[in-house]
Structures are given as structure tokens and as C-alpha cells.
Description:
- One of its GO terms (molecular function) is zinc ion binding.
- By secondary structure, the protein is α+β, with helices and mostly antiparallel strands.
- Among the domains are: about 5-80 and about 110-155, Herpes Virus-1, CATH 3.30.40.10; about 170-300, Zinc/RING finger domain, C3HC4 (zinc finger) (Herpes Virus-1), CATH 3.30.40.10; about 630-670, Helicase, Ruva Protein, domain 3 (Orthogonal Bundle), CATH 1.10.8; about 700-740, Orthogonal Bundle (Helicase, Ruva Protein, domain 3).
- Helices cover about 25% and strands about 20% of the residues.
- Strands 16, 20, 24, 25, 26, 27, 28 and 29 form an 8-stranded mixed β-sheet that branches. A 6-stranded mixed β-sheet has the order 8-13-12-11-9-10, with helices on one face. Strands 2-1-3-5-6 form a 5-stranded antiparallel β-sheet.
- About 10% of the residues have low confidence.
Amino acid sequence: MADVGEVLMSVLSTIRVPKPGDRVHKDECALSFSSPESEGGIYVCMNTFLGFGSQYVGRHHARTGQRAYLHITRTRKAKKEDENNSGSGHPPKKKPTRLAIGIEGGFDVEQELYEEDVKVVILPDRQEVTSEDLGTMPDVVRERVSLSMSGIMAADSVSHTLQVQQWDGEVRQESKHAADLKQLDNGVKIPPSGWRCEVCDLQENIWMNLTDGKVLCGRRYFDGSGGNNHALLHFQETGYPLAVKLGTITPDGADVYSYDEDDMVLDSKLPEHLAHFGINMMTMEKTERTMTELEIAVNQRVGEWEVIQESGTTLKPLFGPGLTGMKNLGNSCYLNSVMQVLFTVPDFRSTYVSNIDKIIDEAPSDPTQDFKTQVAKLGYGLLSGEYSKPAPDPGDEIGASEPRGDQVGIAPRMFKALVGRGHPEFSTNRQQDAQEFLLHFINMVERNCRSGPNPSEAFRFLVEEKIVCQQSQKAKYTQRVDYIVQLPVPMDQAANTEELKEAERRREEGDSSAPTVRAQIPFSACMAALSEPEMLTDFWSSAVQAKTSATKTTRFASFPDHLVIQIKKFTFGLDWVPKKLDVSIDVPDTLDLSGLRATGQQPGEELLPEVAPPPLMTPDVEVKAPVLDDSTVSQLCEMGFPLEACRKAVYYTGNTGIDAAMNWIMSHMDDPDFSAPLVLPGSSSGPGTTPTESLSEEHLATIVSMGFSRDQATKALRATSNVLERAVDWIFSHLDDLDSMEVSEAGRSAAESEGGRDPPPGPRVRDGPGKYELFAFISHMGTSTMCGHYVCHIKKDQQWVIFNDQKVCASEKPPKDLGYLYFYRRVAD
Length: 829
């Protein structure tokens, strides 16, 4: 074996010192969830700064020829007993006083203490070089290697920069109304205590308007508690923007809310504004919890088992393959819940986990940025069982811990960073809507599975919409692709209406002991609301050439292998304040949707003619452009439709409104000239025409580099007025059209090889019986999708299992009536 100094000299040219901007992956393997704390530690390539676990570093060396790696291992230290220790091995935790993470007064983030061992390893013989060994080597070797080692260890790892370090929910901005707030000289003086709402006599959650001194109750919360919205209604009537929460006033400040800015704010002139109504800040004492304290209480309850309705029993922790917990990376429970469910679906298992070796072998040089690699890595981590081990108790001595509910689990940092990259919401550490993330992820799967198996087909189905003109009784049929059934919640169909009315009456009378009653909605009522015809009052009928009324009926044109149902719990009140419906729905374990299958055109039924309305003309003799409703065009464009298609939709529906234009779009999406420029009668070309010659060669090259043909890139750019970003979105949303285009536009020989048959219309969908069984559901706790907590329940081997981030336990009382997203799989007849 060659001398280690000579070997190090021979690879010296490949050893780099990290520069600003270099991505250093020293906390997580690019191909697995190995870390410095794992057995074998992690090996960081000293050239690319990619990290690899012990099982993958040899593969990277063989593939790239790189030989020098920095081997990092960490071993957890035993914690010393604190002077204030209660004797149980756990020092008492301070109660949070600030809605924050990682700063004084906020939620505590436990920091583990580790002993770290760092050395250079030269492959393939795994020769080791420590910092002490470098002292005996030539200066040029010692200097370069030492700089590289220290640079890697000093650099912020990618996972560190993505992780939540500090978050402060109390950072408030000065209100724009504070400096020049108008205050009425109406003689109103507010007593130091005994406040009641001037409308309903409530004595809790009381706010005083800082303009006129009106004392009114605050907003009603999703569960019926809080107030009756009288302070908000007063703002809507008067426009007076600022209010202070009585009972929170102290010499240090108070809760001030700006209805105009829709946020908690600072008021630098608060003492002056309060004094106007006879309130001396310096003598006031706090008698009510501040909004921050209320939010802290909610956040402390979020991680407790009673929130998810299983507090009556001690839940048994589960470990093993398919029972792996996921760490919460700071409001990432929405992602955790969705991915746990998806990797229960056979299509996702077979596409990613069964093929993980092939996917890793074909991965690009930087696998941290490869979608398939990171999805396969996540799926294998969840299903293999390698990381489904009890987490050691930080307060116990090493090796002394008993199995607990928490697991070591996996932290999907690379995956979260990759799927959220460039997205305005999923790239942040804020809470998100699980349904929106599910659709976002399915869209990414669609983009990355143009060739080969596409697991999202398991959820894809066709919806048939039938519109019947009430005046002519003629019909129009359209189909669209969907992945989720959105189930309405008819609150007026509650089975316990009298109980709800009684609780409401007691609340309006100021009875603070009135119970919170949850509306019980029959599942059958939700299905009836989904299937009943919808009345369209502003429909442009091509049969009568005028606006009239119509009915729209929605049915399944195909039934997917796996059906996702979203309960539409989140809505807006009359004041446009988001709220969550607190409902219990008796969702069944089995479902038969056969009665909702679409039937298509019936015998003797006449279809609405494809006739455009008369062209719109101006008084001018010569018309150079159509007169279009710009606001309708803009609304349609914001929905993601091509500009020219939106212009045609508005033109051909005679400027009769967004509903008519939307109906036109849904009916003509499959037209070959759907995105072609609008051409007026008597003109050779329409405004906005983009000839091939004017297309940007740079834009064409960019799209071609993504795996599309030049003809496809040209079509996308033409459809989006030569705007690259819109063209990329367009091309990924028309993949099936492009597949057909490859056949129809590749020349006669290609067409003849297919026997001259037409390409299959529309996207590929699976179909079968409409009978299903429930296998998973995702539940949400909190006032809106933007806050709170998600958990999921999955049925495994006839046993319901609850996945609550790192906790994986056997479920005793799965709250199936309180779910948000329900997942069904087809059962055989």
C-alpha cells in the first residue's frame, strides 16, 4: 500500500476549499438519510461537497473517480444533571412567554451535545489522515487539506440553512394609521374595568375602537368561541381602523389590531390614544390573555394526543417497515402526512422504491437536485424500516433509554427544499394546505414522468359536465381531468340543528357556560350536494343566441384506482374572513359511486350548436381589433389559460361575463387552434400573432434542452406570446396534446406506421368499478389551513395506525368523522 502522504499528494489537485455560495452537504447523505450521527457517519466529497453514507460513498468513488472524502462522525454525550433538576433526569422546562422558536422566552429547541470526530479518508483503500497526521506532511499538502477541512466544517450545511433556527411570531410593524389617527371628541370615557360589549353584553374578548371609543366584542373563532364580530362589523360600517384589546393594557403596551391592515400592529402613540378616552396606561393591569398567549396555548396543545381525539388510552408505539416517522422541519406536518399516505399507494412504491437502485445509478452528478432520486430516497426511507427506531431520550444516559413514541425517523430536508424550490408558499417554513401540496406534488410527478410509468395516474379521473339550456333544452357535454373530489358541506342539513340553535341562543345571551356543539352532517347529504344540478343564471346559449339560465350536472366519466375526497371545511364568512367549519361527518368505510357514472349524450337529446355570437363591432367604420372586456380576459389569464384563448373566449361569448367565457374555454380546450391568435372576419391575421421568425432562439433552445422537440417548443412559445416562463407552464400542462402532436406532426411515415389511426384523444386514465374502501385519511387541527397541525391515519394489515410526525402508534379511536382528506382504493366487485 502506498504511503498515505504520497497518496494525498497525488489527489491534492482534486481537493477544494469551499467558497461562498458552495453547497456543502455535511449533515445528510444525498442518496439516503444517513447523517454524522448514523452508524458509519457521513463522507463529504472534498471536491463536490456532496455527502454520502457509508453504503454509498464507494459507489460515488467508482462513478466519479473522486478519492478524498472528509469523514464526519458524531456521538451523543450524556447530559449532566442540572442543579435545578427534579431528580427524574429531566430539568424543568421554562414556560414559553413569547410566540417564537429558538430565542429567549420562546419555545425551547433542545440542543443535543455531541462529540465529533473528523478525518480525511482516501478511497478505495480507506486510508485515514487526521489533523495530527497533517503536521508531518509537506507544507503544500498540510495547507491545502487543512483549509479544505476547516472550510467544510465551518460552512453552513445546506440542511442547516433550510432548517428553522429562529422564528418570532411577535414581530409587529408600526401601523400606518398610528401617527395621524383621527380621534373623535365625543366625551367618551372608559372605566378601568367592568367592560361589556355595547351590542351583546359579552364580557370576554372585548376591544375598544381607538377612534370613537366604542367597546365591542372581538371575532368569533372557528369553534364558536371568541366573540360575535361586533368590533369587526363596527369597522366595516365606519372605517375606523385601530382597536385595542381591553384587559391586555399594561405600562409596557397592549394588543392593538388594525382591521384595515388585517394584522396585529404597533401603535407608538398608544399612551396618547388611550388617554383621550381617560385610560392611564401606567396604572392598568393585565386581566386577559394577550393574543400571543392564546396562540402559544394553541401551539402547546398541538403536539398533544388529546387534540387528535385519542387521549383516552395509552397508544402503543409501532416500529418496522412502513412505520417510519418524519421529523417536523417547522410546520412541515402537511408534507409529512401527504407523503406517508402516497407511499401506501402501490404505484408510488413500484415507481420509486422498487426501482431505487436503477434510479440512483442513473442519477445526475448532483443527486440532491434530481426529483426522482429524492422521491425514491424518501420512499425507501419510509418503507425500509431502517430509520424506524425509538429515539433516545435526551435526558437519559446513553443506552439507558426505553422505547418511546418518538422515533429517530427521517428529516426530509432535501426533499422539501427540492419540491418547494421556486414556489411562493412551499419554499417557506409556513404552514400550508395539505390538499394544495398534494396537487403540487402530483403536478411535479406529471412533469417528471413523461417517459415511463406515471404513478399519479392512480388518482387521475375524468369528469363529465353536462350543461342544459333551460330555454331550448339542448345540451352541451365537456370533459376535464381531475385528481380530487371536493365534497361540499351543507350546514343546513345538520342532524343536530336544534342543539346547534340552542347553543347559539345561549351564546348570544352572554352565557359563558354554553357548550361548544359540533354540527353533525350526514355523508349522504354531502354526496347529494355534490351530485345535484347547479343553476347557471348567466349562461350564453348558442341555441337561442342570448343569455339565459341553464343547469350544470357533474358526473364521473371514469373511476380512478384510488379516489381522494376533500371535505370543503375551509370557507369564507360574509365578511370574507377565512373560517373553518367545525363539523363531524359520518364518512363510511366503503363507498359505491356507481350511480354517479356519466352517461353521455342520451338518445333523442339535441346538442347545443357550435355557433359563435355575432362579432362585436364599434361605431368606427374600420375595426382593427375586437372590443373585449379586459377584466374578464385578465381573470382567465390568471387561471393559467393562454392569452389568445382568453381573448377568443371573451370575444365568442359576446362579453357576457366570466361564466360564459369559462364555459367556452372548457368546451374548446382540445381544439387544435385553442391557443392560436384571434383572427377577425376579413383580416388575414389577428393582433398578437407570433410568427415563427420572431420566436427567441434562446427560448427555443431552453425548452428543447428540457427534452421537447423544436416543433413542440415552437407551439408552446406561440401559444404564450413568446414568454418563456408561461411557455414552460403551458407545455407541462399540455403533455397529452404534445404526445399526440408527436404522432400527427412527425410526418406521414409515422402516421402510416400506426396504421393511419388517430392518436388517442385526451389524457390516459384508468377506469373500473366505482366501489371503494377507505385506507387513509388526513386530519387538520386549527382555525385555518395556514396554521394548526396535520396528522394522518393509515390502515395497515387491518390495523389503523396514526402518523403524527415522529410518533407512529397503533390507533385506538381513529377520528374518521373529523378528517380533511380521505383516501379510498378500488375494491373488486
